[in-house]
Amino acid sequence: MDFLNLLAESGKTSKGTENTIVFVFEILMMIISIIMIIVGMLQNKKSQTGLSALNGGNEELFSNTKERGFERTMSLWMMSLGIIFFVLTIIISILTNTVLK
């Protein structure tokens, strides 16, 4: 309810209003990051061992396997959430550097 009132009073901005808008975007980023962690944990692992990253062994690096079904859905979710997270980061950066100065 407060966020809608803040948007309605765009002409009468004060420091508190601007801080609240940035706070709302930060809360959205936190929610997106938690969802990204959950989606990342649900994704299938590509390699069989976790040590393959340390010793440089990745047999499936150049394989021609296509993602299907649940794997593809999780991959699309992760990419979409990553793009949203990136855009929110840029918005918060612009707001804090222009509006709050």
From TrEMBL:
Record GO terms (molecular function): protein-transporting ATPase activity
GO biological process, one term: protein secretion
One GO cellular component term noted in the UniProt record for this chain: plasma membrane
Superkingdom to which the source organism belongs: Bacteria
Keywords: Cell membrane, Membrane, Protein transport, Translocation, Transmembrane, Transmembrane helix, Transport
Pfam family, one: SecG
Membrane topology note: Multi-pass membrane protein
Transmembrane segments: 20-42, 76-95
InterPro entries the record matches: SecG
Annotated localization: Cell membrane; Membrane
Keyword Protease attached: no
Similarity annotation: Belongs to the SecG family.
Function: Involved in protein export. Participates in an early event of protein translocation.
Protein's name in the database: Protein-export membrane protein SecG
Gene expressing this chain: secG
